[in-house]
Amino acid sequence: MIQRWYRLLSFAVGLLVALGLTLAATPVSGQTKTLVNADANGVGLHGYDPVAYFTDKKAVKGDPQYYSNYDGAAYYFQSADDKAVFDKEPERYAPQYGGYCAMAMAMGKLEDADPNYFLVYEGKLFLQRNEKAHMMFSKDPEGNRKKADENWSKLHSQQGN
């Protein structure tokens, strides 16, 4: 009985924390609300170049002189070429789940991600919060992606998006 209450309490606290993070990370521009993991200056991916994950196959810090705005965040790039590639197809290169941890999203949580832990799977960029989350997500990327997609969709519905 105590375990059931503890689990229920843990779930409720997790939901409140996720809601608080969501509201804090939801910029409003005009009429559109977006869920995006951006810093206080509106920079997504902690300043890393989203295109480099696909071309260089590693996390590369971007340069603020090359930036583009997309879906509520500013993204930095290592070069004008990467910026141009992103600008042609931003939805292809932008991180999934607004740049939040994909494994946490699969578990119904909204948590920051470390840009150094990532997986490009089926042409999409999935970030993780740490090595453990990266290993967990990588063991079953298809199953975890499906769970994360469902939870992301629910979160968007709750936010009115």
Along the chain, the helix and strand elements come as HEEHEEHHHEEHH
Average pLDDT works out at: 85
What is the approximate shape?
globular
Distance between the termini: 38 Å
Total beta strand runs? 6
SS field, number of helical segments:
7
Give the DSSP E fraction (strand runs of 2 or more residues).
Answer: 15-25%
Largest sheet: 2 strands, antiparallel
Structural classification:
alpha+beta
Radius of gyration: 16 Å
- Proportion of helical residues: 40-55%
Question: Going across the major beta sheet, what is the strand order?
Answer: 1-2
Poorly predicted ranges:
8-33
Number of folding domains?
1
List keywords for this structure.
alpha+beta, 161 residues, two-stranded antiparallel sheet, 7 helices
Description:
The chain is an alpha+beta fold. The chain is built from 7 helices and 6 strands; from the N terminus they run H-E-E-H-E-E-H-H-H-E-E-H-H. The strands form 3 sheets. The protein has a two-stranded antiparallel ribbon with strand order 1-2. It has a two-stranded antiparallel ribbon with strand order 3-4. Strand 5 and strand 6 (124-128) form a beta hairpin. The longest helix has 23 residues, at 2-24.
